[in-house]
């Protein structure tokens, strides 16, 4: 019996080691902070290294004295403890020396903190708003706004029963449909807030994290000195899909940034114009299917079956599957209710019309209803 248990323990340990090793060989072996790509991130890294060196030296000195004392003053060598009440010199020394060390560390730390707060004279200002579970970016200098959500391939792979190997998805759970694009070597002021609960906008390469709090605006700044794509995620537990709201920052040359701004403005204008025309049912169904997958499937599931006790089923719902429920259906999308967020600010009239049309004609909800953007505009 004993040997069988021992064998099982060894087999289990071997299996665990194999799994850990398989994961380890695919992981980065980084043991330190990233230096980052901004002046602040480099200052934070340098400060971290300075403090690390200081505490390492202190640790070596203190533990060396301790081990030497224990070894040379042990009882087996006949050592006798000294008898004294106090030492004025020792008390002064162990008070002054630590204070001097702390002051020496506080000076560079204070300089770094002050530098982090110098958000003035920015070339670009971007307001970042956290939603459950996505990010909204407003380029205040450009009158440009858009939402950034988890990339569709990651969203599909994360679904229960998807049978998609996450390893086959590039940047699984760390990719978005629309990254935030910023020019290199320009000072960017980043304002963070939230629409519902507390979130936290965190991109390690930028060197800092900022909480996004409803009704409050935090700010910070960055000058990205190196072109590239930098990834982060929400660093505050904000709800059931907290792990599925990544951040992607794309740093590009200024001319490429200007071209991107123009393209985004054109797309924004086209989206606004789309709310003024009549859409066919097929167009609305196709658009609505994509929007449902991005915005609704996380709670109501891919086939509209919902989550019992939390999120109602849309398949066969009195609101979604009956003609009488259409006004409530539109109101629910626009204004939300209970755990249902209000999408009136997040989606355009055409988007909401497409989602409602899709939901009312999918999963057996054969109402035949075709909701147009003008219907949503009237309901607003």
Give a structural overview.
With 380 residues, the protein is of the alpha+beta class. Helix content is 43%, strand content 16%. The chain has 10 helices and 10 strands. The strands form 2 sheets. Strands 3-2-1-5-8 form a 5-stranded mixed beta sheet. A hairpin with a 4-residue loop joins strand 6 and strand 7. Helix 6 packs across helix 9. The longest helix is centred in the first third of the chain and has 34 residues.
How would the blueprint of this fold be written?
Elements: H1 2-25, H2 39-72, H3 88-116, E1 124-131, E2 134-139, E3 144-148, H4 152-158, E4 180-183, E5 187-194, E6 199-203, E7 208-212, E8 218-223, E9 228-234, E10 246-252, H5 254-274, H6 281-295, H7 297-300, H8 326-335, H9 349-359, H10 373-379
Parallel strand pairs: 1-5, 4-10
Antiparallel strand pairs: 1-2, 2-3, 5-8, 6-7, 6-9, 9-10
Helix pairs in contact: 2-3, 6-9, 9-10
What are the salient characteristics of this protein?
380 residues; alpha+beta; Immunoglobulin-like; Cytochrome Bc1 Complex, Chain D, domain 2; 3 domains; 5-stranded mixed sheet; 10 helices; 10 strands; elongated; disordered N terminus
The number of distinct β-strands equals 10
Could you tell me the mean pLDDT? 87
Largest sheet: 5 strands, mixed
Domain module tally: 3
Give the low-confidence spans. Answer: 1-27
Biggest sheet strand order reads 3-2-1-5-8
In CATH, the architecture of the largest domain is Sandwich
* H/I helix tally: 10
Oligomeric category: single chain
- How much of the sequence lies in strands comes to 15-25%
CATH topology of the largest domain, anyone?
Answer: Immunoglobulin-like
Structural category is alpha+beta
Radius of gyration: 29 Å
Q: What's the order of the H and E elements?
A: HHHEEEHEEEEEEEHHHHHH
Q: What's the overall geometry?
A: elongated
What would you give as the CATH superfamily of the largest domain? Cupredoxins -  blue copper proteins
How many angstroms separate the termini?
A: 73 Å
* Range of helix content: 40-55%
């Amino acid at each position: 019996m004993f040997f069988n248990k021992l064998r099982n323990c060894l087999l289990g340990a071997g299996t665990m080691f194999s799994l850990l090793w398989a994961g380890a060989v695919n992981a980065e072996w980084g043991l330190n902070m990233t230096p980052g790509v901004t002046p602040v991130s480099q200052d934070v890294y340098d400060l971290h290294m300075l403090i690390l060196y200081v505490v390492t030296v202190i640790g070596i000195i203190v533990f060396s004295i301790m081990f030497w004392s224990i070894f040379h003053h042990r009882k087996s060598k006949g050592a006798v403890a000294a008898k004294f009440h106090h030492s004025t010199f020792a008390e002064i020394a162990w008070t002054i020396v630590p204070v001097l060390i702390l002051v020496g560390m506080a000076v560079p730390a204070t300089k770094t903190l002050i530098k982090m707060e110098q958000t003035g004279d920015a070339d670009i200002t971007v307001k970042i708003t956290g939603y459950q579970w996505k990010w909204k970016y407003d380029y205040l200098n450009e009158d440009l706004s858009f939402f950034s959500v988890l990339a569709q391939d990651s969203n599909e792979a994360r679904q229960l029963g998807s049978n998609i190997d996450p390893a086959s998805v590039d940047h699984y759970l760390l990719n978005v449909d629309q990254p935030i694009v910023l020019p290199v070597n320009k000072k960017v002021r980043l304002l963070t807030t939230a629409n519902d609960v507390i979130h936290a906008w965190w991109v390690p390469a930028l060197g800092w994290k900022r909480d996004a709090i409803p009704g409050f605006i935090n700010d910070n700044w960055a000058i990205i000195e190196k072109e590239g794509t930098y990834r982060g995620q929400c660093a505050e537990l904000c709800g059931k899909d907290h792990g599925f709201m990544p951040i992607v920052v794309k740093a590009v040359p200024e001319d490429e940034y200007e071209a991107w701004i123009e393209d985004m403005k054109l797309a924004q204008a086209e989206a606004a114009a789309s709310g003024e025309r009549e859409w066919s049912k097929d167009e609305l169904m196709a658009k609505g299917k994509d929007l449902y997958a991005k915005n609704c499937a996380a709670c109501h599931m891919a086939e509209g079956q919902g989550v019992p006790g939390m999120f109602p089923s849309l398949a066969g719902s009195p609101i979604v599957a009956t003609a009488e429920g259409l006004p409530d259906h539109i109101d629910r999308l626009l204004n939300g209710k209970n755990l249902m967020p209000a999408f009136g600010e997040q989606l355009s009239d055409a988007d909401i019309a497409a989602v409602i049309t899709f939901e009312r004609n999918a999963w057996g909800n054969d109402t035949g209803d075709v909701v147009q953007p003008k219907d949503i505009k009237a309901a607003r």
